[in-house]
Amino acid sequence: MNIAIIGAGYWGKNLVRVFYSLSDDVKLKYVCDLDEKKLAKIKKMYPDVQTIADANIIFSDPEISAVVVSTPASAHYELIKKTLLSGKHVLVEKPMTRTLKEADELVTLAKEKDLVLMVDHTFLYTPAVKKIKHLIENNELGKINYIDSERINLGLIQPDVNVIYDLAAHDISIFNYILGEWPSSVMAFGKSFITKGTVREVEEVAHINLEYPSGVMAHVHVSWLSPVKLRKMLVGGSKKMIIYNDVEPSEKIKIVDQGVDIDFGKENSFFPIYRSGEISIPKLSEGEALIAEAQEFIQSIKENRSPLTCGESGLKTVQVLEKATQSMRENGIKIYF
Amino acid sequence: MNIAIIGAGYWGKNLVRVFYSLSDDVKLKYVCDLDEKKLAKIKKMYPDVQTIADANIIFSDPEISAVVVSTPASAHYELIKKTLLSGKHVLVEKPMTRTLKEADELVTLAKEKDLVLMVDHTFLYTPAVKKIKHLIENNELGKINYIDSERINLGLIQPDVNVIYDLAAHDISIFNYILGEWPSSVMAFGKSFITKGTVREVEEVAHINLEYPSGVMAHVHVSWLSPVKLRKMLVGGSKKMIIYNDVEPSEKIKIVDQGVDIDFGKENSFFPIYRSGEISIPKLSEGEALIAEAQEFIQSIKENRSPLTCGESGLKTVQVLEKATQSMRENGIKIYF
Amino acid sequence: MNIAIIGAGYWGKNLVRVFYSLSDDVKLKYVCDLDEKKLAKIKKMYPDVQTIADANIIFSDPEISAVVVSTPASAHYELIKKTLLSGKHVLVEKPMTRTLKEADELVTLAKEKDLVLMVDHTFLYTPAVKKIKHLIENNELGKINYIDSERINLGLIQPDVNVIYDLAAHDISIFNYILGEWPSSVMAFGKSFITKGTVREVEEVAHINLEYPSGVMAHVHVSWLSPVKLRKMLVGGSKKMIIYNDVEPSEKIKIVDQGVDIDFGKENSFFPIYRSGEISIPKLSEGEALIAEAQEFIQSIKENRSPLTCGESGLKTVQVLEKATQSMRENGIKIYF
Amino acid sequence: MNIAIIGAGYWGKNLVRVFYSLSDDVKLKYVCDLDEKKLAKIKKMYPDVQTIADANIIFSDPEISAVVVSTPASAHYELIKKTLLSGKHVLVEKPMTRTLKEADELVTLAKEKDLVLMVDHTFLYTPAVKKIKHLIENNELGKINYIDSERINLGLIQPDVNVIYDLAAHDISIFNYILGEWPSSVMAFGKSFITKGTVREVEEVAHINLEYPSGVMAHVHVSWLSPVKLRKMLVGGSKKMIIYNDVEPSEKIKIVDQGVDIDFGKENSFFPIYRSGEISIPKLSEGEALIAEAQEFIQSIKENRSPLTCGESGLKTVQVLEKATQSMRENGIKIYF
């Protein structure tokens, strides 16, 4: 199977590295980018890959079965559409598109063409997120009350999307995955400081509040203007709680046996009883998420099935990003799905 | 000067300890509580203090100049009113009252009676918060863009107020103090899980979004249901940023010389330039905040002046707490002041 | 039972606080110190305690059953001796004495007089150290290979003993307790920098290497000149290992299911197999160690039995401190016991 | 300039990556290893590199100017000797050799042949170590009193050298570099647990104590059996102190303005005065140390000069490793150089 990668930027380079040495079946034939310097670097590292500036070469090459799109978000829609219309499977970096309408059209097109449309929600392939999903599914945490995520650091300010599209795309896709449901409402609050008043004004700091049908309350804090890099998520269950710190090299997940029960013995009495037991840090399997994801892409093509992070899941994420942005710009109004 | 303390609970015990040995001028005459066990403990530790169950003894004792109220919030209004009506100065634990209306009435009453009405916003007397105020005033941080605070842990669930009244009272008073302005709008999102459906239902987790007239965006996350104890505040200025971690024993404040500038050389170009310089951890003065606060109370009485955390500042905090609670219960609607 | 405390310094104040409100049976009658300011502070906090400058009042008061000695180490020997000779039980701050000879004499004297001689090795009453002892005794860690301890910070430089006597006394007593054996040899390496060349020259930084009969290798790093405060101990067992961080407020002990096995399948092959499983952080019981210790002192007197940290255990610690100091001053020579 | 790398193991792979894309002047012609699997991986990643199993091809190829030796330590001596005898420059992984005698012979041989003999003491090329050297040279820390290093983790147990040779080689080379002097004495204490009693018995945990002519006291703790990975160094100066934590992603160095002075006003008085000021975390330059090192190798060849980590410095490190091992096996006896 021959594949091509469009976009050799920050994340694209990782995709090139992974697909280059994925398996003997898969051959990375083209890397396409408009920036000659990036192509030169790729050529130096991988002399047997063809580096090209014109993506049409890929679409018209019958040897190519699948395309990986890793460009700025504003180019996703056109490139996915062309890829699907040329009869090739596609894996696209998150967020899939900038609007629900575009996402909808592409999901429909992929179905019609019977092609795999997969979104690069990498975190869903990490051992940490898989472990959290497993713990929730096995009812180890009890009823989930809330999820709270912080994804903040300095930069990288995107030129074509706001911080919600750039960073919260990760959190939304993780929430939806581990809870196994889509949110019922969203509200957001955010502002622009650095780009404010410029032609490229986008919100750089934002808070998103979500409700899920099961009653879970979720919150995401995203920022490009933070003095500290945090990748932290709390999951509060009625039996146990999780602290997920993705910046930790090895102790990413702490399972805290802790909670509150309330005794209402007499009418007016009120005795919260705080349980506080052992903390356990599970040993997570190793292995790079991006490799697992690339393998899922190839396998779903071979098996002609929907991948874990399919177009529909990408669409659901885009829907939240779009409505969160709308809420943020309309005084934080609550928007129902 | 003779003083009395009403309420010998969790925080009241600290007030007793501090006022007991504050200075030779100040004598702690009474400690009042309805719980005999608490009184017995006080008596054992401080045999020369009179422990009483009836607060009216205090109000009618002409020797008493000032009263410290450290009861559950629901009792504040009545006790402050009685104290002022009996011609005595009052220091009250935060939040001052549960409603703006009550706060308003008490501030007016104190003015009429020419008495000190002070609120126990202890954090404003900490070296850390004073340092942040100093840095902002001296323009070391540049224009302040945002403040973000997390004050979360397991418990202590209050019987008579929600988590916003209990915990966010600290953050709101700190924000107002270091910025030197009151917020112009508030929105909040919160839920009840443990007490849900009971007679004592209160929100246990909440997110509050605030706007200030100067353009600062502020956010507070408060929770009684967190697996981890956090007391963390980020202050993002255009020149420098602050990480304030109150849980750290000695390195509470980090000043990060970091920021982003954007170069718009040509029409469509977009080059964010990330500055990232030295981090400095200032040596903060030592000394317990509660002692500084108690001294401020005594001094403001002696000098017949308004204390730092005067009734008006307590009122402004209560106003935010009340409106945040209203927003939280009305779909997160934005409320302007 | 009436008791007296001699020495109201840094640690003495804690002992006063604890014994003052220990139980209704125990009455703190005297606090003795040469420093009038310290006595005045004690008097202000505890008006019903008699503050005195002459310890002989204690020794000659027949009402006094037991004495707590919390002076600089150089005064311990004389004060313990006088206490025992006056027929009273004694609890002495660590280190018990400065020489093995003195310790030996006092242990013998206490036996002859049938009095309790107890040493204030507080750490042995902490839930963390008790937990480690429990884990070792129950063979949860397998065979213990090594213990490694760091106890370093800035100050407090003692005027009459070196850093080994001041800080390593804790580690040695912990090692002996959790291993249930005394060391067979000691070597030490240390230097004086700040006090070097003065009349009060003592070593301020030191490393101690110990061997135990069971084969355990132990190391202690103590320093008064460290830029960071560390209280960290590693216990390496063949099955599991412990990270004990006493500076952590709640997660003091981590039990790490980790180790190495080596496969020697063929003559020259060498395949280390690294096991790396879950980490668990047990919930430790709460309660102040000093209270537990004070209760043990009172109980051992009442029950006429040897306390956990008896004179013999104090003597064994002094022996190590003395020989470690000797080694340090004789080129690090290994000294056998 | 054509180069070859012998050894494609854990560290060798990094050397391949760096030398492969170092500059246009330098061409990585051969990678040599006895393990076919390792060669196959190299071939897949770098198709234009020749992978060979026989190192003699390298020695007899006149196109090759320089060789990088990255094999187990036991093979270093023979390979360096052959390289030099074939007239090629050599960069060798640390430790240079297993004995001072071998190191001596090779340094002499390189001088006779006028070839560069460089040792891969990578840490000396890191921004953190360079910063510490700079601070010491500029007298920012005052007189250096001590250095204390911990380099501990689980594994990787080496088959042919003990933990001192494997890990302390880093610390010794750093100490010598930042102090600008060689140690005057060494003592060591260490044991074998996992490999004990086997044909491959080597010490897996060790403590090394060093003295330097200037009076600096240094200590290194190395271990393959630690439950936690630490790479921490303290440098204690009379004016300031450094905490160097190499595991931190960005805040590797903290400069602590802290110290003790002692006032001996009257004969017997003793007042230590503790200074405790600001902590600053400098922004370190970025850039991979291994690239800087590779460039230094190439430059020193081109400029026909001695590199920073020359053979002599490698020899001085080997000398300490050898004597530390001897001390460790002879009851910790102090050995002078």
What does this structure look like?
Four copies of one chain form a homotetramer. Chain A has about 325 residues and is an alpha/beta fold. The first copy, chain A, contains nine helices and 15 strands. In chain A, the strands form two sheets. In chain A, strands 14-13-12-11-7-10-9-8-15 form a nine-stranded mixed beta sheet. In chain A, β12 (about 240-245) and β13 (about 255-265) form a beta hairpin. At the A-B interface, β7, β8, β9, β10 and β11 of A face β7, β8, β9, β10 and β11 of B. β14 of chain A pairs antiparallel with β14 (about 270-280) of chain C, so a sheet runs across the interface.
Please give the radius of gyration of chain A in angstroms: 21 Å
What gap, in angstroms, lies between the N and C termini of chain A? 40 Å
Q: Largest interface: which pair?
A: A-B, 54 and 53 residues
Order of helices and strands of chain A, N to C?
EHEHEHEHEHEHEHEEEEEEEHHE
* Low-pLDDT regions of chain A: none
Quote the average pLDDT of chain A.
95
Strand order of the largest sheet of chain A: 14-13-12-11-7-10-9-8-15
Structural topology:
4 copies of one chain form a homotetramer.
Chain A: E1 2-6, H1 10-20, E2 27-32, H2 36-45, E3 50-52, H3 56-59, E4 64-69, H4 76-85, E5 89-93, H5 100-113, E6 117-120, H6 127-137, E7 144-154, H7 163-179, E8 185-191, E9 205-211, E10 217-223, E11 225-237, E12 241-245, E13 253-263, E14 271-281, H8 289-302, H9 311-329, E15 335-336
Parallel strand pairs in A: 1-2, 1-4, 2-3, 4-5, 5-6, 7-10
Antiparallel strand pairs in A: 7-11, 8-9, 8-15, 9-10, 11-12, 12-13, 13-14
